[in-house]
């Protein structure tokens, strides 16, 4: 469905999906097939932070497990039972639960949908310049340059 | 219920209410009796933006109708049917609907619960320094100084 121009309010199910599925290079891009992001904050012209409605198909993951240097993140579960992975281990989530990921702690997180049902959640993150993403489980690192993520191997060589 | 220390995740109904009900001076403070905010982002140590679970009792309002100079705001309705008031007029909201309020537009907003049922929503706002609040319907203005709101009459005299 086309999004209205400058809406006053919308039902989140009316928000169109983001056309670019991921910024990850291969082989990582293929690992997040099954994740669909619907930008919500952008529809209202918000720039200081982003809000997405994100769907995880059965067995999809939200992202590579990662930590941000400057960006705080927050999630609120609307539907389904994703598994949150952090440095502390695995935590089962359910609708009405929320979690926050403080920038700069180095504690890496992602969500996995290990169920046969769809997962739906809201995700919020600010857009602090100079943010970096670190990935303890994978040979990739990320730097936010002028609003765009640049990915390299951990030794700095490009993908 | 006491909040856990550094939780990995919580159900939002476990989040304790904010002890200070409002920063407004009288006679405005009394007008938002019936509004209860439960900070969520703070529980996880987030500082770049705030996330609250907010309850509006029947006939309560979310805030004086206001606009921010620097803070973007976003709401997501979890329960109930609040009325959103903006410069464009009144919009009826329902669960699953969201709205965003871009900083610097001057378009002022608030929510009113005109029903006999509780309203529950998530609100997100960033914490950009130097933010100012303007109130088209009331003799009050606000300035964020070192993370605290300072309120004066529109002619600058203090309350």
Structure description:
- The longest helix of chain A has 4 residues, at 28-31.
- The first copy, chain A, has one helix at residues 28-31; strands at 10-11, 35-39, 49-56, 67-68, 73-79, 83-86, 89-92, 97-101, 110-112, 119-126, 132-134, 141-145, 148-152.
- The first copy, chain A, has a 5-stranded antiparallel β-sheet with strand order 2-3-10-5-8, with no helix packed on it.
- Chain A is globular and about 45 Å long.
- With 159 residues, the first copy, chain A, is an all-beta fold.
- Chain A has a single domain, classed as Jelly Rolls (Sandwich).
- Chain A contains 1 helix and 13 strands, in the order βαββββββββββββ.
- Strand 1 of chain A pairs antiparallel with strand 8 of chain B, so a sheet runs across the interface.
- Chains A, B: It holds the Pfam family Cupin_2.
- Chains A, B: This is Cupin 2 conserved barrel domain protein.
- Chains A, B: Residues 53-124 form the Cupin type-2 domain.
- Chains A, B: InterPro entries: Cupin_2, GPI/OXD, RmlC-like_jellyroll, RmlC_Cupin_sf.
- Chains A, B: Keywords: Metal-binding.
Helices, strands, pairings?
2 copies of one chain form a homodimer.
Chain A: E1 10-11, H1 28-31, E2 35-39, E3 49-56, E4 67-68, E5 73-79, E6 83-86, E7 89-92, E8 97-101, E9 110-112, E10 119-126, E11 132-134, E12 141-145, E13 148-152
Antiparallel strand pairs in A: 2-3, 3-10, 4-11, 5-8, 5-10, 6-7, 6-9, 11-12, 12-13
Organism (chains A, B): Tolypothrix tenuis PCC 7101
Protein name (chains A, B): Cupin 2 conserved barrel domain protein
Pfam family, one (chains A, B): Cupin_2
């Amino acid at each position: 469905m086309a999004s209205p121009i400058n809406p006053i309010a919308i039902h989140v199910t009316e928000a169109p999906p983001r056309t670019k599925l991921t910024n990850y290079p291969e082989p990582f891009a293929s690992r997040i097939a099954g994740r669909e992001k619907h930008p919500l904050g952008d529809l209202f012209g918000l720039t200081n932070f982003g809000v997405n409605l994100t769907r995880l198909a059965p067995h999809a993951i939200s992202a590579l497990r990662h930590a941000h240097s400057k960006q705080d993140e927050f999630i609120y579960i609307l539907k389904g039972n994703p598994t949150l992975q952090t440095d502390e281990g695995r935590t089962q989530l359910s609708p009405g639960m929320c979690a926050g990921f403080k920038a700069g702690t180095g504690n890496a997180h992602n969500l996995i949908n290990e169920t046969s049902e769809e997962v739906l959640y809201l995700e919020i993150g600010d857009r602090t310049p100079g943010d970096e993403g670190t990935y303890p489980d994978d040979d990739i690192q990320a730097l936010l340059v002028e609003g765009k993520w640049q990915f390299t191997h951990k030794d700095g060589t490009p993908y």
